[in-house]
Amino acid sequence: MGKDFRYYFQHPWSRLIVAYLVIFFNFLIFAEDPVSHSQTEANVIVVGNCFSFVTNKYPREVGWRLLKVLLWLLAILIGLIAGKFLFHQRLFGQLLRLKMFREDHGSWMTMFFSTILFLFIFSHIYNTILLMDGNMG
Question: Where does the sequence pass through the membrane (predicted)?
Answer without folding.
Answer: 12-31, 69-87, 108-126
